[in-house]
Design a protein that fits this description.
92 residues, alpha+beta, eight-stranded antiparallel sheet, 1 helix, 10 strands, 33% strand, flat
Length: 92
């Protein structure tokens, strides 16, 4: 399968990174809104292992793994990331 990667620039200045028409970016946010809000998505699902998957300019943050909202706790975050990776491997 050929992967078509594109960066879409909206008229308002927002940027989107897509692969085959689905929001996807592995090395940064897949969507950067003109107002500064940033969204991390992999294969169209909110996902970020090294920080919040949604960052709002007002400071609000939301943490997601595989499109599941996670209550962030620095004491258990690494364990949750590892469990998410194991679930992904098991589902392949």
């Amino acid at each position: 399968m050929i992967k078509l990667t594109e960066i879409i620039l909206d008229l308002d200045g927002s940027k989107s990174w897509c692969v085959n028409g689905i929001l996807h970016r592995e090395d940064g946010p897949a969507k950067e809104h003109a107002n500064g809000n940033r969204l991390w998505l992999i294969n169209g699902m909110f996902h970020r292992e090294d920080g919040p998957a949604i960052e709002h300019t007002n400071g609000e943050k939301s943490w997601y793994l595989n499109d599941r909202k996670i209550e962030y706790d620095p004491e258990t975050w690494d364990q949750k990331v590892n469990e998410s990776r194991i679930r992904n491997i098991m589902s392949e």
